[in-house]
Every structure is written in structure tokens, then in C-alpha cells.
Design goal:
It comes from Manihot esculenta (Cassava). By secondary structure, the chain is α+β, with helices and mostly antiparallel strands. Helix content is 38%, strand content 15%. Strands 1, 2, 3, 4, 5, 6, 7 and 8 form an eight-stranded mixed beta sheet that branches. Strands 11-12-13-14-16-15 form a six-stranded antiparallel β-barrel. Bound molecules: zinc ion (ZN).
Length: 698
């Protein structure tokens, strides 16, 4: 233990009071000073934990849960309109969980997560205008003081970090006081796999640590000058790893503890057994594979709810109650329906999806039941090769036979031929069922792929944008399902599971650059042509103020049929940016620096993504990127060392020059001079049968 007394300041605040409380306070200070080793406490709790495990074998669960599901649901409704802005992503544990860099990033991510949680809650429930009186810092076990994670890591304290805490701001005590700790989060590897049994109890060693910190907090509060709300005799400790987390609630009157300073661990263990109520939540997922917190999921909700209670202890009851905010749930649901153009709210009025077998005489039977699988959880339709699907738009009904099932890394889509023109090939995208009012992640992507892309392609058509390097909207409408459609005449959908599912059909079709690269078919000529054709598509779109926002190898296709020379088409316009509030897709490898930093595009962003796509497609080594910070770091290093220019220079000098040009524009508001670069690229395109020919079409 370094730094002498760990808690001189924490408890010292009580010593100026009356002599009685001064004596009590001194005793507790001494007690706290000695109460630092979770391993000793854990050893004293072994029999207690054993008895709990025995109990859990016979009864349903060993510990009560801190929150009832119904409370969490109401809280979830209340949080619907609340945005939690998380900046640092949790690193993926798959990539070397032992490395210091990953652990450091995890500490930064948990600090950021707690900060985002607290800020979102403070602004939604307490005050939008008053500054938040709390901050987040890491606990250094060496002296039990708090430091900003960044500084602690920079000072080599990473190995000694024990927890991350939310603290009341106090400029006089920059390293925190224990009575001002609202909540602590313990970041421990494998919280989930350490859980014992199906009950998902945390292991005793983790629980022992949580209890040690909890008692320290309770003891410090018991002799604090701060005024707490009535419920200050309970504390919440969060247990998290890089994906999962749960909440431990420790509740009890520490005045009932025997403060024998010679036996601090025995006294504490006895108090836990006799006077303390410990409740433990299930360990649930908090961060997704990309390291983003799933704010609406139960894992994050439990943690948020605990933080909410902690804020009440220090700031009093919120200005807006959970009930107030949750009351808006109904109207928000209504707004969302309108946004998604559902029109009639009487259909599936409660937002729940009802499956009803259609037994009516089949009118149109082209889509065979067994060729369509509806995934029970997502209700996403999957079609088999050979099945025929009918869609209905404002004018007519059109049939499409599925010829191939494709996958773009995220979602399934199809190559289909119109029934009336079997020789023709088109891309067909099936959207998510409109009854999915609270779209899952996959449904959200489907929405971008189908509904949003339909909107963008329609706007392009309305604005008269035409280029062979842009996709064309061939048809869009709603699926016609098997059986009789009982949709009300006023609009909306019937009970059939596919009723109203939106469909988008586009042309042309081709092989994606991703597939060409993996098949070794993306060479020098392809790279230059691809750069030219994509830039040409971007030039046309940007003339109408439209940016792409999601350039990656899955969103560029090479079209071989119907043209003398293969050419590339920039597809996947669902994430296109039309106005300032639109957000581009986030991709650690292909997003532009500005998009990663600001969540927006600057005028050179699409070109920057195009350069990354060419760099990786031409064999640039694909780095492991598991966080936005890592992605930004890679960009900075790659550009400053001119790695991208070097790699593209091996392919062609014009691509190298283009990369230099984009580098000079990145992050600036200056527009790209498309004409110059299209001309330069065109001069470098080799057409096989013309030698060094000129493609005049673009
Ligand atoms: Zn129907």
C-alpha cells in the first residue's frame, strides 16, 4: 500500500462535529483505513456464499433481483426519447483481451459509457440547463484515490485500477472522497463466464470485491456531512466485462456494524450475513460486437436504472418523473407509425405482431409457403431460388422469379427476373415487415436498404439524375401475399405475416468489388476504372446535393453484361446524405475521418472512403480495428506515413496522385474538382480491344 492513509480526507470531514460523533467518526476512519483487502473479506464469506449456492439449488434463485422487469419496462418507455451519446467504443475482447492497449481502451470506454449514461439521465430527468454536478473517474487501488482514466493510464497506473466511479464534483478534492461516490463499476474480464450456474451468479471473488467497495461507500456516507436522500443506505455496484454486465445492490444500516478495528473483516462479514441485503441482477449483454452500447437492451437498462437511483441519492427526486416521461410512449409510437407510413393505426393496434394462418381460397399462389422462411424473432422473410414473388405498386402487379440469393456482409438480397421478361436480371431487396415498430438492428439495416434507398432513388429520378454508374429504380411496392388479403379498404395491412412488406427492385446487377477481391479478380485496370466510375457517380449525385455515405466493397458492383466494357456502379444508397441531419453509415475501415469524428460528411468524405476501398481492395493490409479511436489512429498513421499513397502508387501513378489530392482535401470544406480527376483517370483506362482507348461515356 503506498501513499499512507488511504482515506484521510474521506472521513475527516466528520471530525469537526460534536465529540460524540467525533469519536464515532475516528473509529470509523480507523476501520476504513484497515478495510482494504477484498481477498480477506472474500475468504470470510465463503460459508455464506456456500449456503447461498445450496439455497439456489433448492429454490429458484439465490439472490433477489434489484429491479423488477415491470419497473425496467416503464423506465425503458421513459428513456425512449433520450439520447445517450457514447463516443468511445468498447474494444472487442476477441482481439487479445490480455493486451494493455485493449485494457486501457476498455477503461476509457467504461468511463465514457458511465459519463454518457449519467449525462443522458441528468438532462432527461433533472435539468437540461443546469450543468451536471457529477463526473467520472477511475479508482487507483494503490492509494484508493480517483483519477481520470486517461491520466491514470498515462502515468502507468493501468495495472492498479480497481474500479470506475461516478463522483460528486468537488473542486477541493480533485481525487475524490468516498462519501461522494455515487456508484462504482468493476471492470473484470469474463464477468459472464465467471458466473456460477444457470442462475448467473457472479463468482464469490467478484462479489467479495463488490461488497468491499459497497461497505466502504456505506461507511463513508454514514459519517458524511452531505445530505442524502432517505435511500442512501443502499449502494449499487456494477459488474462489467467488455460485453456483459449486471448490477449488485447492497443495502443495510451500517450503524448496526460492530466497529472492532482489530477485526474489520470479521465484523464486515458478520454484518453482511446479519444486517445486509444483497440483490444481484442477471448478467446481460451491454455492448454489441462493434463496441456500441445497446442502450435499449435489458443489460444496459439495468445499469442505467441503477445509475438513476444513485443520482436520486445525491440530487433528490427528478424534476420529471419516470411516469411523466413514460406517458409519452404512446404518442411516440404513434409518431413512429406515421413516419413509417403505416397510416391506419387500427391494424395491429397494440404494436404486437399477430400471426394468423390464412385459410381463405388462394388467389395468388406463386410464393410457396415452404420457399419462404420467416425468422420468428425478426420476422424477416427469406426467399429460395425459383420462388416467384409478386409486388404491387400504384399502377400494376409485377412478378419476379428469384434467381440467386446474395449477401452483402450484413443483409440478404436477391437477383430476380421479371416474369414477363425472364432474360432480364435485377436486384431485389425485401424490407422488414411494417409491424416491426421497434426495429431490431437487422430491421433497421433492412429499412435503410429498402425504404430509405427507395426514397433516395426516387429523388434521384425526380431530379433527373442519370448516369450509367448510378443504380436505377426499376420497381418498388408492397408484396402480394398468398391467400386472401383482408386489409381494410382505408389502407394498412391485414394479419398475414407478409402483408405490406416493402420491396425494392433496381438495375443493373453485377458482382461486388468484395467478391472480385476475394476471387482475385480486382487488378490494376479494375482499380482505375472503379475509381473513375465511382467518382463519376459521386459527381452526378453531388450535383444534386446527394452524398453516398456508405462506400465499401459490398456497395460497388462490376457490370459485365450489356456493355462492351465492364463498368462499375455505385450501389447501396440507403444511407445517402440529403440534408445536414442525415447521418452516414459508420464503418471502421471505410468511413471517412470526418464521419468518424463528427458523424457527418464533409465534401471530400465519399472520395476519402473511395480511396480506402481502393487501398484495401488493391491489397493494402486490413488492420484489426475495434474502436473509433483505433480507426482514427490508423488513418492518421497511414496518411502521415503516406502508406496509402505508396500502395496505390504500386498500382498506378494516377491513383497515387488522386490519394494525395484527397489527403489535401480531407476535413476541409473545399469541393472536389471532379472534372479534372475524371479526365485524368479516363486517360489511364485501358480498353482491351482499343489499346489505350478513351471511354467517353462518363
Ligand atoms: Zn394482406
Amino acid at each position: 500500500m503506498e501513499g499512507g492513509s488511504p482515506d484521510q480526507e474521506s472521513i475527516g470531514s466528520g471530525t469537526k462535529r460534536s465529540s460524540v460523533s467525533s469519536g464515532k467518526s475516528r473509529n470509523r476512519k480507523e476501520f476504513l483505513y484497515r478495510f482494504v483487502d477484498s481477498e480477506i473479506l472474500t475468504a470470510k464469506l465463503e460459508d455464506w456464499f456456500e449456503s447461498i449456492l445450496v439455497k439456489s439449488a433448492t429454490e429458484k434463485s439465490a439472490f433477489d433481483v434489484p429491479f423488477e422487469l415491470i419497473e425496467l419496462q416503464k423506465f425503458d418507455y421513459a428513456l425512449e426519447g433520450v439520447s445517450f451519446q457514447q463516443l468511445i467504443r468498447m474494444p472487442n475482447a476477441i482481439y487479445g483481451s490480455t493486451s494493455d492497449a485493449v485494457e486501457a481502451t476498455a477503461y476509457l470506454a467504461i468511463e465514457d459509457f458511465l459519463h454518457a449514461s449519467m449525462k443522458g439521465l441528468w438532462e432527461a430527468f433533472w435539468s437540461e440547463d443546469d450543468p451536471m454536478p457529477f463526473s467520472v473517474a477511475c479508482l487507483y487501488n494503490g492509494n484508493l484515490k480517483f483519477y481520470q482514466a486517461e491520466k491514470a493510464i498515462a502515468n502507468g497506473k493501468l495495472g492498479g485500477l480497481g474500479a470506475t466511479g461516478i463522483l460528486l464534483n468537488n473542486p477541493r478534492h480533485p481525487h475524490g472522497k468516498w462519501d461522494q461516490v455515487l456508484e462504482l463499476a468493476l471492470l473484470r474480464p469474463d464477468i459472464r463466464s465467471l458466473s456460477v450456474g444457470s442462475d448467473q451468479l457472479p463468482s464469490l471473488s467478484v462479489l467479495g470485491e463488490a461488497l468491499l467497495y459497497a461497505i466502504r461507500m456505506l461507511l463513508s456516507r454514514s459519517s458524511s456531512r452531505l445530505s442524502f436522500s432517505e435511500c442512501s443506505n443502499c449502494v449499487f455496484i456494477l459488474l462489467v466485462d467488455s460485453q456483459y454486465g449486471g448490477v449488485v445492490k447492497v443495502e443495510g444500516d451500517v450503524n448496526k456494524m460492530d466497529f472492532d478495528v482489530k477485526n474489520v473483516y470479521e465484523c464486515s462479514a458478520e454484518w453482511i450475513k446479519d444486517h445486509c441485503r444483497v440483490s444481484v441482477s442477471p448478467i446481460d449483454r451491454i455492448w454489441n460486437k462493434l463496441g456500441n452500447a445497446n442502450w435499449g437492451d435489458i443489460g444496459a437498462l439495468q445499469v442505467l436504472f441503477a445509475t438513476f437511483h444513485c443520482i436520486i441519492q445525491f440530487a433528490g427526486m427528478p424534476k420529471h418523473s419516470i411516469e411523466d416521461l413514460a406517458a409519452d410512449h404512446g404518442s411516440r409510437l404513434q409518431t413512429r407509425r406515421v413516419e413509417r407510413q403505416l397510416g391506419d393505426t387500427r391494424v395491429n393496434g397494440n404494436g404486437l405482431f399477430r400471426f394468423q394462418h390464412c385459410s381463405g381460397s388462394p388467389e395468388i399462389v406463386e410464393v410457396q409457403d415452404e420457399s419462404i422462411k420467416v425468422k420468428s424473432e425478426g420476422l424477416i422473410m427469406k426467399l429460395d431460388v425459383g420462388s416467384v414473388l409478386w409486388l404491387e405498386d400504384a399502377e400494376q402487379r409485377r412478378g419476379y422469379q428469384i434467381a440467386d440469393v446474395l449477401h452483402n456482409g450484413e443483409l440478404q438480397y436477391y437477383i430476380a427476373s421479371p416474369v414477363e421478361d425472364p432474360g432480364k436480371s435485377l436486384f431485389l431487396f425485401v424490407g422488414s415487415h411494417p409491424s416491426q415498430l421497434e426495429p431490431a438492428w437487422e430491421d433497421m439495416n433492412l429499412w435503410y436498404q429498402v425504404q430509405r434507398q427507395t426514397k433516395i432513388l426516387t429523388i434521384m429520378r425526380q431530379k433527373g439524375l442519370s448516369s450509367k454508374y448510378l443504380p436505377q429504380l426499376s420497381a418498388s411496392g408492397r408484396i402480394i401475399h398468398q391467400g386472401q388479403c383482408r386489409k381494410p379498404s382505408s389502407g394498412g395491412n391485414c394479419d398475414h405475416p407478409w402483408c405490406g412488406t416493402p420491396i425494392l427492385v433496381t438495375s443493373p446487377v453485377g458482382e461486388t468489388v468484395a467478391d472480385m477481391v476475394s476471387a482475385g479478380r480486382f487488378g490494376l485496370d479494375e482499380a482505375i476504372r472503379c475509381c473513375h466510375d465511382c467518382l463519376s457517380a459521386l459527381a452526378v449525385a453531388s450535383s444534386a446535393g446527394i452524398r453516398h455515405g456508405a462506400i465499401r466493397p459490398e456497395n460497388v458492383i462490376c457490370v459485365r453484361s450489356g456493355a462492351r466494357h465492364p463498368y462499375f456502379v455505385l450501389i447501396g444508397w440507403g444511407h445517402a446524405i440529403l440534408e445536414d441531419r442525415d447521418r452516414p453509415a459508420m464503418n471502421l475501415h471505410y468511413s471517412s475521418t470526418y464521419a468518424l469524428q463528427e458523424g457527418k460528411l464533409c465534401s471530400a468524405s465519399d472520395a476519402e472512403s473511395l480511396v480506402y476501398m481502393l487501398y484495401f481492395s488493391c491489397g493494402g493490409p486490413l488492420p484489426d480495428m475495434d474502436s473509433v479511436e483505433g480507426a482514427l489512429q490508423w488513418r492518421e498513421t497511414a496518411w502521415s506515413r503516406r502508406l496509402i499513397q505508396q500502395k496505390l502508387g504500386d498500382v498506378s501513378t494516377v491513383l497515387k496522385a488522386f490519394a494525395d489530392y484527397v489527403d489535401s482535401l480531407c476535413g476541409t470544406p473545399y469541393p472536389i474538382d471532379y472534372d479534372i480527376w475524371l479526365r485524368r483517370l479516363r486517360r489511364n483506362i485501358h480498353d482491351e480491344d482499343h489499346g489505350k482507348g478513351v471511354d467517353t461515356s462518363g
